[in-house]
Amino acid sequence: MNSNRISEHTARSNGTMLTYLIHFLMALDLLIIVPLSIFILQETHNDASQAGYLSGSYALCAALSSLLLTRSAQSERKWHLICLLGLAISTLLLPFLQHFNALLVARAAAGCFGGMLAVTNMNALARVSPPQLRKRHMAMLMSTFPLALTLGVPVLLWLTHFFGWQSTFYVIGGLLFMCLLLVLIRPDATHPQDELDSHPADAQKMPPFAVLPFALLIAMTILGTFLVSTQFPVMLVERLHLSETSLALSYLAGGTGSFLLIQSYSRYHGTCSDLTCIAVLSGLMGLCSVLGFFTDNPHLALAMFAGFMTVSSARSLILVTSTLSDLPAALRTKMAGIQNAVQHLSVGLGAIFSSFMISEAATQPIDFKQLVAVSVILTLLVPACIWKHLRSSKQQTRPNQCR
Question: pLDDT averaged over the chain?
Answer without folding.
Answer: 78
